[in-house]
Amino acid sequence: MDEQKHLMNDTLEQTIEYLPRLIEGVDELVDRLQAGSEKQAMALFDAVLDGLEWVNDAINLTMPFWSGSTSIDPHALGEPLEAMAEALKNRDYTLICDVLAYEIKPTLMQWLNNIKICLRG
């Protein structure tokens, strides 16, 4: 296996290990917001955003090396993140929860499955 392919596989394996923790963080953030614990939620919010950025970077950097067995839209989080930024500006925590639970989390779960398929292929 050439070095680039090995590096790509390592990055994707790290992403597979990290995504479940990020998904748990998304769930915890939603729970805190729904419970009205805004201060605790905002502390977790930055960590979730950092995690989303890391996963998105990992996917974008490895995309050129993916086999044709599966694909991921690296731009899938763009629109939900924009909606979440607008909701945050308006302190619309219900919308933030909806975006996290019904758009971002399913995308992360799909990415996790697709990365597993890619590594098998």
UniProtKB/TrEMBL annotation:
Which ranges carry the DUF8042 domain?
A: 10-119
The protein depicted here goes by the name DUF8042 domain-containing protein
Query: Which taxonomic lineage is given here?
Result: Bacteria, Bacillati, Bacillota, Clostridia, Thermoanaerobacterales
